[in-house]
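Predict structure. Chain length: 230.
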Amino acid sequence: MRYIGGKHRIAKLLAGSILPHVRDRRLIEPFCGGMSATVALQPQFVSDACSPLIRLINSVRGGWEPPAEVSEQMYQEALGGDHNNPLTFFILQGNSYGGKWRGGYARDARRNATGDSTRALIRKVGATMSTIFTNACYWDWTPGPGDVFYCDPPYRGVTNGYATGPFDSDAFWDWVRDGAQRGALMFVSEFQGPDWATVHVEYPSRTDLRKRQGGDQKTVEKLYIVGDLT
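Prediction complete.
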């Protein structure tokens, strides 16, 4: 499904950087978003603060299939609909420009946004049937020495195009540092992290996140690590 900030371009690279350090610990992803990283990492536990997203995923798990086409009229009608309804959420997320929540109907004549989103969602849900999905915020997790976390939070200062609204990056990084102090290994994707966080690896890539700030440009995705690798 189209999702702003999705990791489909670098998901396999992320997995190659994170999975060797998991060993016998449980892997947790508290920001599943578009699920590209989830498919590559295959964590035991996944959550997201966006309850309609988790409801949509679990609905597809239960056999519900999104529509093959979404018209602009359907999109406009969904704007005033129940956002907790899986169909409404799918329309306003997977069929919006750039995968931005309520970002305007995607009118790209070169591709079928609905078809792409439907196929991707069904494929990703099918590939993660052994993962437990829950509706929870990152702070609902208490990291411990037996945990490895991969976090892909809303990036600082880049966009507010998420259904969950504004995001407090400072509070998030405080939670990351506290988790590492408790013995967990914390991986975080961001463009820019605090000085005390170590850049584990960088992934030059193209992203939709900054198109409105200077065109389709190359950016550097950074994978930060906080905690002891040994």
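Summary: Helices lie at 11-18, 36-41, 51-61, 72-78, 86-94, 113-126, 169-181.
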